[in-house]
Specification:
Number of strands: 10
Shape: globular
Structural class: alpha/beta
Strand content: 15-25%
Order of helices and strands: EHEHEHEEHEHEHHEHHHHHHEEH
Largest sheet: 8 strands, mixed
Radius of gyration: 21 Å
Number of helices: 14
Helix content: 40-55%
Distance between the termini: 57 Å
Length: about 350
């Protein structure tokens, strides 16, 4: 009896005309195998460039692991304290495509979400998708509360952007002496007259950090609010408000209920229920208390000259759009070419 013919294999997904830039600087290779497996899958969809700022010994290990898999390049931009920015600018300089996807080393795209970002770049200069943690250990659930509050009030700041190469190069790049580098990039594009497309419906997986790294970043993330003065004022008011409300338990419960309702709104918007568990809003009180404490520690660091980063103190979280626009005007930078095909 003859065997039935094997079912036809599904056709591979179409290749995406874009450059995927992954800047990294590792002090440990604990995640090397998992990242290599992701790069092996990713390179079937898109051209990949890893810009590696690791020490020479680790760089050599990475070069061997990724030989013939992706383009592996050293950081070529020397100016600036923020190594990620220098890595991104290096990658943009050597990119082979106009459409570029920049992603941290913990971001994990699927073909559909990657294609959606690149497609959106046909009508925008910068595309901002939405990250969500997978898996969800306790500290990822804690930080998800921040994500949902951001979504409930507007939009979140992901660890990945889509950008047009011509737009970024027309501005001369963005400042590498800031802490909130993604906001600096976004504001640079806006200052140049570029179109920013916020796409909270494009959901992209992000691997959670270790619990130790999560704890170490609490004050550093609170410091980013110096780039958004209205937010800094709100976050600095958390502790005084909680102290006052603590004398009236009903008021405190009411306040927390309102904040959890905002987070639930963020969870329900733009398909968020598919990736954000309903229990996520229960972590809102913990994140609010954390940010209230961390903000005042960040204010103290600002008075001392800023946050320590790469052996020096950085005081600037990100520049206002008007400051960047003034720099571009003084440098004679031209806005993005609006005659390009859509």
């Amino acid at each position: 009896m003859t065997e039935p013919p094997a079912p036809p294999q599904p056709a591979p997904p179409p290749r995406i005309a874009a450059e995927y830039i992954l800047p990294l600087r590792w002090s440990s290779d604990d995640g090397l195998d998992e990242l290599t497996a992701y790069l092996r899958r990713l390179r079937e969809w898109v051209d990949v460039t890893v810009v590696d700022g690791s020490d020479p010994e680790r760089f050599a290990v990475h070069a061997l692991a990724w030989q013939g898999l992706v383009r592996h390049a050293p950081v070529a931009v020397a100016r600036g304290a923020n190594g990620k920015v220098r890595g991104v600018l290096t990658g943009i300089t050597i990119a082979r495509h106009e459409a570029i996807v920049i992603a941290d080393d913990d971001v994990r795209y699927e073909h559909g979400s990657l294609a959606a970002v690149v497609t959106a770049l046909q009508r925008a200069d910068l595309v901002k998708p939405q990250n969500h943690f997978q898996p969800l250990p306790w500290h990822a659930r804690w930080d998800t509360a921040r994500t949902l509050l951001n979504r409930g009030l507007g939009s979140d700041y992901p660890g990945t952007y889509g950008v047009r190469r011509s737009t970024v190069t027309a501005t001369g790049g963005y400042d590498a002496d800031v802490l909130f580098e993604n906001l600096e990039l976004e504001r640079t594009v806006r200052a140049a007259g570029g179109v920013v497309s916020t796409r909270p419906d494009i959901l992209v997986v992000r691997r959670p950090p270790s619990a130790r790294h999560f704890v170490s970043q609490r004050v550093r993330q609170a410091y980013d609010s110096f780039a958004q003065p209205w937010r800094l004022v709100l976050e600095a008011s958390i502790l005084p408000v909680l102290v006052c409300a603590g004398r009236r338990p009903a008021a405190l419960v009411g306040l927390l209920a309102v904040l959890m309702a905002v987070a639930e709104r963020g969870r329900r918007r733009h398909g968020g229920r598919a990736v954000f568990p309903a229990s996520s809003i229960l972590w809102v009180p913990f994140w609010i208390a954390e940010r209230g404490v961390a903000t005042w520690i960040a204010i103290g660091l600002r008075l001392r000259g800023g946050v320590r980063y790469s052996g020096r103190r950085l005081a600037r979280a990100a520049h206002p759009v008007r400051t960047i626009r003034r720099r571009l005007t003084q440098a004679g930078m031209s806005p993005p070419d609006r005659s390009r095909s859509r």
